[in-house]
Amino acid sequence: MKNINSNNNADLASPIKRLYAFILDVGIIVMIIFMVAPISKGFMFSSNSTFLDLIFILSYFVIPTAIKGKTLGKWITGIKVVDLEGYLPGPKAIPREIAGRFVSLIVIGIGVLWIIFDKKNQSWHDKIAGTIVIEDSNFSLFNKLFSRSKPDKKSK
Q1: What is the widest separation between alpha-carbon atoms in the chain?
Q2: pTM for this structure?
Q3: In the chain, which ranges are continuous DSSP H helix?
Q4: Backbone phi, psi, residue 65, to 5°
Q5: What kind and span of H or E run contains 79?
Q6: For the segment 13-37, what is each residue's pLDDT rounded down to a tens digit?
């Protein structure tokens, strides 16, 4: 994989794509809550199940980010989390998603807005874990659906 530390920032995911991926993730979580809550009879997503709900939401972000570098929202938008050498974050995803996001959000969201001003588009949770978010050249459902590619001349 290409060394991300070079001066070429072409691979970095834009703040807008990162926001779009997060909005998709929140939407997916909300859909799961609306589907599971009625049939769980208070076991999940109720005032009595705060701990399990927190475990579910953290697991949604931590496990896929550690294993594949992306949540469903990142997969759809074609971006992924990698460490500064360009490898999947693995266990680095745990402090990134738990402690790092907490720190980023607790200060009125300034840690997340930091993406706009940072040269590597890193938020505070990226800086804490030593990660960046890049374009995933392997797959992007978003690009496949919305790109304006020229028709293939061979298929005519």
Answers
A1: 61
A2: 0.80
A3: 15-40, 50-68, 72-77, 93-95, 101-106, 110-113, 124-129, 141-146
A4: -70, -40
A5: strand 79-83
A6: 999 999 999 999 999 999 999 999 8
